[in-house]
Amino acid sequence: MQRKVIISCAVTGSADSPGKNPAVPVTPVEIAKSCVDAAKAGAAVVHIHVRDPKTTKPSMEGALYREVVERIRASGTDVVINLTTGPGARFEHDPDDPTKAGPASTMRGPEDRVRHVQELRPDICSLDMGSMNMGSRVFINTPDHLRTMAIAIREAGVLPELEVFETGHLLLAKKMIETGHIKGPGMFQICLGIAWGQPATPEAMSYMRNLLPPASPWFAFGISLHQFPMVAQAVLLGGHVRVGLEDNLYLEKGRLAPSNAALVEKAAHIIEVLGDQVATPADAREILGLQASRN
Question: When comparing pLDDT for 196 and 258, which is higher?
Fold first, then answer.
């Protein structure tokens, strides 16, 4: 039987990418439009960060999230909305005093990181399930902070997307399901190819998949040149897929992606070539156990 495969589109992220590809959306109007266009191309889920419209840098401003969400909901699309909670966890040392945070640190308390989720009540929000070196900085998600965030997400009636960048993150997520902080079986996003996490290889994805709780719906993605090979691998292993300009700026080698929609269309083609179907938002809600559209 054909399986219905969900495409999630991560439309902008927080990397310094707008200067590298002008298709990366920055303003709330651009981000919302990119989400709607991705949905029309076949994305059932849109994963959303926001940026300061003046600087293009990542932002945690609640008003920016609100404008994006309200614009998507007003568009008439029933796409599943997934808001990030990743911002507020970057740390680097002060070069003159390693006991203090440096100027690029963005550390915030767990309450700040989920406030927009509590206020806007999207269908899904991400929850990064551990700490790791990420480039030259540290991405810090302590167990205590994660438990606080998980409780707030659960009380808001939002499904947490459990982002796992390495095996230890997955094991911590399983423990928090056992303790009741996260409702089982959990929905997982296997994140591959980010330095210095799990590599974007078939073996790594298979290993992570095999550690998941039984019956857990799961997605996977690879960054940069690994994006589309990992789409195919996730489909073959029974998972769902993520693409988008957060993770990859190119449609193919040497050719910048003209839009998030173009990346979604290519992922949809891979799914169909492999014999499966692209899931609609209604399909995604059924697969993930979500309520009817809040839009």
Answer: 258
